[in-house]
Structures are given as structure tokens and as C-alpha cells.
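so my prof wants the structure for this chain in the C-alpha cells format not the other one, which i didnt know existed until like an hour ago. anyway here's the sequence
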Amino acid sequence: MKMEIKYDNNGLVPAIIQDATTKNVLMLGYMNEEAYKKTIETKKVTFYSRSKQRLWTKGEESGNFLNLVELKNDCDNDSLLIQVNPAGPTCHKGTGNCWGEENTPNYGFFSTLETIIAERVANKDTAKSYVASLFSKGINKVAQKVGEEAVETVIEAMDNNDALFLYESADLLFHYLMLLQAKGFTLKDIEAELKGRHK
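here's what i got, hopefully its the right format
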């Protein structure tokens, strides 16, 4: 894993730590050449602590190590991106990252939709919310709606109207997210199931 690294005048290079699975940024630290070499050798991310003036392996006291997955430098060779599998919270304050956030998976707009669905179900405003209204009719109605949308998606797949196919596909995914929540699950559970099947 030999690479060119341009250290600054203090012999340090910034190291951005990213969860290899969730892709969330967890923290920023600094490495000198010795810390870099120790990280490669032990597969545990080691920094140079500017305050303690010594090498510091993340997790050496807490046990919350950052297990090295991949390390690469940027186009100017003056900063590192280190992907890790964290063994516990990254921040010493107990949060998933050093910005006070949990290190949870994010599926882009699908995660936003999951949050919106959960909020509308909790608000139970059946007069204004389609989601709340459908949930109020019970899980059988939610499941039935997924079945209807699946059939409509299949029908449009056999036609040549791509716009209608995408429209029905969006309806299907939206209602499937609702069904997942009705059963007490999220996309994270589906991801775990698929990962378990992957060989």
C-alpha cells in the first residue's frame, strides 16, 4: 500500500475517516509517517495526537477501534481518505461521529421518505394525509395496495411507455416502504437480509 504522501511543514497529513459501509464521515485526524506506517501494519487506524505529541491508536483505551478497510490519498497527495469498520462509537462522547450524529445508513431520498411516512403515521391526520389514512385501515389494506401497484408495474413493463412504467414503479416503491413500516421494518432490514445472502 505504498503511496506518495505530501506531509505539511509539521510532518502531518489530514486523515478523513469514513465508514466503509454507511459512507458517513466519522472524524478528522492527523497522521505523521510513523502513524501511517503503524496503521498499515496493524490495520488499526493510528493518528498523531497534536495535543499529546505522540502516536494515538483510536480505541486504545475505549476498545472502539477503527479497523482499516481502505486507504487512499487525494489528487494532490496531501490528504487521506481512510475507510474503516468502526468497532463502536467513534466520538469520545459516545456518538457515531464527531459531529454528534449517529452513524446510521442513509439511502438518499428513500431515507427521507421513510421519515415522512413515520411522521405522518404518528400524526394520524387521516383527513389530510394519504399515508395516515391508508395506515388507519390496517395492514391488510396496505399490503393489498402494494399488490395492486405491483400488478400495474408489471403491466406497464410489458408496454413501451417508459414514463408510465417509471410512474407505477415509483408508486410501488412508495407503498412498499409503507408496508415495511407497517410490519415494523425499514430499508436497513432489507439491506441486512440481502447482505446475508451475498456470497
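also thought this was worth mentioning. The first strand starts at residue 13 and ends at 19.
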